[in-house]
Specification:
two-stranded antiparallel sheet, alpha+beta, 31% helix, 86 residues, 2 helices
């Protein structure tokens, strides 16, 4: 079979002219000056519209403590977690 309504290469390229990738628009954080996506919180400080949305400092400390405890368990410095037997 023959393609009935074949498009020329020029028509195809004209249609695809809008498919180019664009750089993402970034906004500047008013608190720390870092760039972030518009209408999203800043991933550096956790602020959005001048208020704290997520306390990233507390999350970072909790994560470091959790990882330190895990490393200690792996090394065998601490006793293994207690399991309840029924």
């Amino acid at each position: 079979m023959v393609v009935r309504m074949r498009h020329t290469s020029g028509q195809t390229r004209s249609r695809r002219s809008h498919h180019a990738l664009e750089a993402t628009a970034l906004a500047v954080c008013k608190n720390c000056g870092a760039e972030h996506r518009p209408h999203h919180m800043c991933l550096s400080c956790g602020f959005y519209k001048g208020r704290v949305v997520i306390d990233l400092l507390a999350k970072k400390k909790a994560r470091e403590a959790r990882l330190a405890e895990k490393r200690a368990i792996i090394r065998g410095d601490e006793a293994s977690p207690v399991t309840e037997e029924k």
